[in-house]
Design brief:
Strand content: under 5%
Number of helices: 3
Order of helices and strands: HHH
Structural class: mainly alpha
Shape: rod-shaped
């Protein structure tokens, strides 16, 4: 399934630059724009932390209860009155 977009009111200098670059690369203007968008998107994507990736794929929206984040990488010590014996 392909979709196309129409961009109106492009600066004529920008449009001629796109034509020249597309001709130089041997692709259509539309393909050049797709390549430029893909390149820009990959440059600006930030890498997710493992916990963020896990939450994104297995979070509450998917029926999984995630543990609360714990500081310093260990669970806090909980003391109760019966453990001291």
């Amino acid at each position: 399934m392909r979709s196309s977009i129409t961009v109106r009111n492009i600066d004529p200098a920008d449009k001629s630059w796109l034509r020249r670059e597309a001709r130089h690369l041997g692709v259509s203007m539309e393909e050049l724009v797709r390549l430029l968008i893909r390149e820009r998107r990959t440059k600006t994507e930030r890498r997710l932390k493992p916990s963020e990736a896990f939450a994104r794929h297995f979070g509450a929206e998917h029926g999984v209860d995630l543990a609360l984040p714990v500081r310093c990488g260990y669970r806090p010590l909980v003391l109760s009155g019966n453990d001291s014996e």
